[in-house]
Amino acid sequence: MNQPAEKRLEWKDYQDIFLTPKRIASGQRFKRSWKQELDAIDRKSLSCFGICYCIDTRR
């Protein structure tokens, strides 16, 4: 990869590639499976760092 990309893509150009119904459903299953762990991380990161660690599975 010695040559630069011919064109620079923006998020809107990638969105349809990466945000497919199958990937969204997979992310929602992941979030449900790991809910307790993710909630614990969210509470800890919010109390320690003031950061809300959340995974948005909406589209």
UniProtKB/TrEMBL annotation:
Organism, scientific name: invertebrate metagenome
Query: Gene3D superfamilies from the xrefs?
Result: 1.10.530.10
Cite the Transglycosylase SLT domain residue spans from the record: 2-44
Which InterPro entries does this UniProt record tie to the protein?
Answer: SLT_2 (IPR031304)
A Pfam family of the record is: SLT_2
Q: What is this protein called?
A: Transglycosylase SLT domain-containing protein
